[in-house]
Please model this.
Amino acid sequence: MENALLETMQCTDAAVILLQTGNADTLTACIAGERVPKAKLLCLLRQHLEDYEMPKQFIFMDAIPKNESGKADRGKPRQVMDCQ
Model:
């Protein structure tokens, strides 16, 4: 999913996480780069992903937080969403 986002969106970075919304987990794409309308994102991603792989929510960030190893810190976007 992250590779499809990077190729399709030509964004600088992307991470896919599960965010808990109510009693359910929501597949969420965090994107660092140009903000694009959700309808356009879905249209572009449908060319690369199956329906069950499609993120339900998109979060645009200035940069994807990294851990000490340089990998996406998947906990940080969750903290950002908890603050909103």
Notes: The beta strands are 13-21, 24-32, 57-61. The longest strand covers residues 13-21. The mean pLDDT is 82. Residues 9 and 41 are 8 Å apart (CA to CA).
